[in-house]
Amino acid sequence: MRATILMYHMIDTPVTPAEVRFCRTRENFRKDMQLIREAGYHVISLKTLLTAIKNNTHIPDNAIVITFDDGLACNYENALPILQEFGYSASFFVVTSKISGFNDFSWDYGFSCRRMLSTSEIIAMAQAGMDIGSHTVNHVILGKAKTQIAIHEIRDSKAMLEDALGHEIPHFAYPFGSWNPTVRDVVMTAGYTGACSTMPWPNRPDTDPYLLRRSEIKGQDAPWQFRLKLHFATNTMPPITEMRQLTRKFLEKTGVISLRKF
Ligand SMILES: [Zn+2]
């Protein structure tokens, strides 16, 4: 078993330089979905992946899980119709105190003012078969938070979403990918079945379900970079010249090109 989890944030046009990394345009997002299909990957749900890890059951090696962090309104306006066009499901991790509000937790990082998902949009997404997960109450850096704050952020966001949706919220994503062993255990004891980190590389049967690996899809990623991320689940792709050098070193080390120029 080998599954790559993709992490997106916004499907929209960037307005500020800081947003370029986090905004995938609708055109590029549609191309991503097309490429997933054409390259023979299978989109599965986070629940299916976690069940396979827990029970050591088989899923295809070329499995892909699609996730979105933060809960911006563009997820409903732009991502949802494209996902539906392809028949794919995805997980959306929502910052609960910002529901029906604005992304003010991002303004210090140079983001523009953007609308967050409303309760009715979140309900509509869940009814459309999308998975809604928690991304804390206030988008805090959990790895540096006091334990009582972490408990509040992790538990109360789950309870709030469960109240709004009327069903269990089993999945969590760490804001900024920040965690520590205490935080991980709080997530587990709060009743979640799994949590997404931002550490790269594919997920395998021995992956900790509370520290799932994800590959960040950046706004600027070219189709060849996206294709490599699908396969290798990296977070950063080295420039092409560096990749050539790495390939050469690897081939030299294995003796393949010891007698000839590469
Ligand atoms: Zn986030």
Describe the structure.
The mean pLDDT is 93. This protein has helices spanning 26-38, 46-55, 74-86, 119-127, 147-165, 181-189, 223-232, 240-253; strands at residues 3-8, 10-11, 23-24, 42-43, 63-70, 91-94, 131-134, 171-173, 194-196, 215-216. Helix 6 links the parallel strand 8 and strand 9. It is built from eight helices and ten strands. Helix 1 runs parallel beside helix 3 and helix 5 (147-165) runs parallel beside helix 6. With 262 residues, the protein is of the alpha/beta class. The strands form three sheets. Strands 1, 4, 5, 6, 7 and 10 form a six-stranded parallel beta sheet that branches. The protein has a two-stranded parallel sheet with strand order 2-3. The protein has a single domain (3-234), classed as Glycoside hydrolase/deacetylase (TIM Barrel, Alpha-Beta Barrel). The two termini are 34 Å apart. Zinc ion is lined by residues 69-70, 135, 139, 175.
